[in-house]
Design brief:
Layout (H helix, E strand, L loop, with lengths): L2 E6 L6 H14 L3 E7 L13 H10 L4 E5 L1 H4 L3 H15 L4 E6 L4 H13 L2 H12 L4 H16 L9 H4 L3 H15 L5 E6 L17 H9 L12 H14 L9 H9 L3 H4 L9 H9 L5 H8 L6 H13 L3 H8 L6 E6 L1 H13 L4 E2 L11 H20 L9 H4 L3 E2 L2
Parallel strand pairs: 1-2, 1-4, 2-3, 4-5, 6-7, 6-8
Antiparallel strand pairs: 3-6
Length: 417
């Protein structure tokens, strides 16, 4: 049996994701597919548009065989940690043959070359990285410049007519390189496959192509233009979007946490803020200062952002603040990851995959959420406690008159028999 792994957010599942799924199966000749999927919050430091069970339903009804939740502690991290969290989980299932991802470059050899340099960190690269960071550039910009210098010094014959900076400015290329780095560091036997991403650009805000970006679809849904997105979503996804809207009445966005975030920042928690994941010395003071000048969350985030601190990083910090994820807690849990796998959805083939995982992997499988309590592992409890916080926070952001608490206990995985 051949199994392909997919790293996903499905926020929401659109035609581009359908294309990715079909291409992944075809290119690898795989009979089975496993999606590791972000849950209540996503990599950009924002809440998911819809809840994780709705996303799992969309995935399964569109042809994914098994959906496993990426724990919150990795779902809202930098590209490097996000990639490691996903790849490490796929690797430890011990049944995955391929991991398939889109990229703007569609050149696995070059992407792999870049990944190997980043893993080995030769002196020339490392010294230039420090130089660019000291100049006040963000890590991603500094890394790009240092790599460009390295290639021009040592690999000039291999990169004629190739723009390294442009390659590293593309979001899917960045993630692809991080996936490859994780595979290298884990010495994984999973074979990477990439293909060229098509359709709208990653952050394209307008619905102007059949394969519209998730950004454009979310923007329309947040403006309550549900009918307008119908032609950009598979029928199964559109159905679940309608069901979600009927159940909860509101799509989620960072704007819904405006008051919560400003309250936390204005009650004088500078000492706690300095310990939050991804904070650097001085950035905590900047965040506190700007919080007194801007009431709107998006203006607030924009005012903090600099070359060194992009918006997505600030958003992730604010999300970590709301859940209490500190640097020390993350470092402790990182060393005990992965500790389990949590099922959000499966079809008939998914049940076969779960049985195979039971045979091949030591990871406990959590289907019924309350069963985690029976597992005598304090690290499982700690990691899952953040998933539960994130779920409760997700539903709190919807500001419904009806209270949706402890939904991890009440909502069940989508099992399609």
């Amino acid at each position: 049996m051949s199994v392909v792994g997919l790293i996903t957010e499905y926020n929401p599942f659109h035609f581009g994701h359908k294309y990715h799924l079909n291409m992944s199966k075809n290119m690898t000749n795989s009979e089975y597919s496993i999606a590791i999927m972000s849950g209540s919050f996503v990599q950009r430091g924002e809440p998911s548009l819809v809840d994780k069970w709705t996303k799992a339903k969309m995935a399964i009804d569109n042809g994914v065989d098994l959906v496993i939740e990426l724990p919150f502690i990795f779902s809202t991290q930098s590209a490097e940690l996000f990639a490691y969290g996903n790849i490490s989980l796929l690797h430890n299932l011990n049944i995955v043959d391929y991991v398939c991802f889109g990229s703007e470059l569609d050149n696995l050899n070059l992407l792999n070359k870049i990944a190997k340099i980043l893993c080995k960190e030769p002196h020339y690269y490392k010294n230039n990285l420090k130089k660019y960071l000291d100049m006040g550039n963000s890590f991603s910009v500094s890394r790009s410049k240092a790599l460009e210098d390295y290639f021009h010094k040592y690999e000039i014959d291999k990169i004629k007519h190739i723009n390294i900076a442009e390659i590293l400015n593309m979001p899917n290329n960045i993630l692809a390189i991080e996936y490859l780095k994780a595979l290298i560091s884990l010495k994984s036997n999973i074979k990477p496959i990439t293909f060229k991403r098509i359709g709208s650009k990653y952050h394209e805000p307008l619905l102007d192509q059949k394969l519209a970006s998730a950004t454009a679809i979310r923007k329309s849904l947040l403006n309550n233009d549900i009918i307008g997105v119908k032609k950009y979503l598979p029928d199964q996804s559109y159905k679940h979007i309608l069901d979600y809207k009927n159940n909860y009445n509101r799509f989620n966005s960072l704007h819904n946490y405006n008051q919560i975030i400003h309250y936390l920042l204005r009650i004088g928690i500078i000492d706690e803020l300095s310990n939050i994941m991804d904070i650097e010395t001085g950035l905590d003071n900047r965040i506190i200062q700007k919080s007194t000048q801007h009431n709107d969350i998006y203006h607030f985030v924009q005012s903090i952002s600099t070359k060194r601190y992009p918006k997505t990083r600030i958003q992730r910090i604010l999300t970590h603040l709301m859940t209490g994820l500190t640097q020390s807690i993350f470092e402790d849990l990182y060393t005990h990851y992965p500790a389990y796998l949590r099922v959000l959805g499966a079809n008939k083939k998914g049940f076969i995959l779960l049985n195979k995982i039971k045979e091949k992997s030591d990871l406990p499988i959590i289907v019924k959420f309350s069963d985690y309590d029976k597992l005598n592992n304090p690290y499982i409890h700690k990691i899952i406690s953040f998933d539960k916080k994130a779920t409760d926070l997700f539903f709190l952001g919807l500001m419904n008159q009806k209270t949706f608490m402890n939904m991890d206990y009440y909502a069940t995985p989508y099992m399609k028999k």
